[in-house]
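ARCHIVE CARD
Drawer: 12
Card no.: 0347
Subject: one protein chain, sequence and derived structure
Cross-reference: see card 0346
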Amino acid sequence: MILIVFGLFILWGFGWDTVGRRLQIEVSGIVVASRDVPSTGAPRYATEYTIRGPDGNEQVFWAGPTDGSLPRSMPVGTNIRKERWHLDFERDGRQEGFPYIFYSIVLGIALYLVVWGIVILRSTFNAKGMERD
């Protein structure tokens, strides 16, 4: 049972809370304002960006300290484009990647733990059921 819980915890933390959040981000435009909260270099600071899109509308976007977000502390004037359901994004015309290999390995291990835990749990229940007969 512990294996299943641990595997599900990893799937939530690295899967939904990181990869899932990154996939949902959609932002396109030029950074016209940037503010670090609480301050640049603090252990877990975030950056509040104001992005002016190609249509001239502005939107506020927050970047946090994990891979589930875009980078913090990008300077004013940076042109970014991140499409929903993509993990990569463009910064000033250059493609910025995502650590696919690391996350694939971690999520694979988590899935293995869940499946292995279920197999162990089922074999335990089956063994107890056979003892009663």
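Annotation on reverse: The chain has two helices and six strands. The longest strand covers residues 27-37.
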